[in-house]
């Protein structure tokens, strides 16, 4: 027991340091956002003399963050719905439906996980331009769907592979079609995985800057993360105001992590085991 306690203390040290390294930037940003411009210039690392949310309110009202937040909500919600629908269907097909070339097609989907977006960025931009989807909500929704669909298919296939084949066979004996099995059996049983994958995809889409910056070229269609990035140049002499914008963008992500920690962990580990 003493050896175990000693081992836990040793492991706890780097974990505490890692936690501190993660929490400190958020606390530092919060402290800067509570300062006036004068306080920040005089001492960047001192604690704020008076706690005020003026910079956060100014960043929201004067920088268009409300419009950017709406844009992010629209494209994130649309992309997550498409990803869950297509990913769950593909996961069911790859795990429970027998068809020619199933393994090779699944390997192609896995191979897509290894291709960075930067490699396909130029042809991707040209294709969206040719079909007139640049600077539109559908264009960015389809871009997110294509980028994160292989990841979704992989996790949903891994989850559905755990469902005994007898369950599917029993439903087919009762007269259910392939679509009926998917709707009556796979969707209800796959709710935990769908929730986990949906949260992860929502975080991916919400935090994205590169794809959104490439697709949404006009200022009115910017997503929140792109809008906050633009604040750095617009308010380069007012760092507290920029920090307020960063907090506005970070609050939804932090809230999701706090409320859905278990689901996020389950989603990350969904494909690590089988059986």
UniProtKB/TrEMBL annotation:
<keyword id="KW-0812">Transmembrane</keyword>
<feature type="transmembrane region" description="Helical">
    <location>
        <begin position="239"/>
        <end position="260"/>
    </location>
</feature>
<feature type="transmembrane region" description="Helical">
    <location>
        <begin position="104"/>
        <end position="125"/>
    </location>
</feature>
<comment type="similarity">
    <text>Belongs to the binding-protein-dependent transport system permease family.</text>
</comment>
<feature type="transmembrane region" description="Helical">
    <location>
        <begin position="193"/>
        <end position="216"/>
    </location>
</feature>
<feature type="transmembrane region" description="Helical">
    <location>
        <begin position="12"/>
        <end position="34"/>
    </location>
</feature>
<keyword id="KW-1003">Cell membrane</keyword>
<feature type="transmembrane region" description="Helical">
    <location>
        <begin position="137"/>
        <end position="156"/>
    </location>
</feature>
<keyword id="KW-0472">Membrane</keyword>
<keyword id="KW-0813">Transport</keyword>
<feature type="domain" description="ABC transmembrane type-1">
    <location>
        <begin position="69"/>
        <end position="260"/>
    </location>
</feature>
<dbReference type="InterPro" id="IPR000515">
    <property type="entry name" value="MetI-like"/>
</dbReference>
<feature type="transmembrane region" description="Helical">
    <location>
        <begin position="70"/>
        <end position="92"/>
    </location>
</feature>
<keyword id="KW-1133">Transmembrane helix</keyword>
<protein>
    <submittedName>
        <fullName>Carbohydrate ABC transporter permease</fullName>
    </submittedName>
</protein>
<dbReference type="InterPro" id="IPR035906">
    <property type="entry name" value="MetI-like_sf"/>
</dbReference>
<dbReference type="Pfam" id="PF00528">
    <property type="entry name" value="BPD_transp_1"/>
</dbReference>
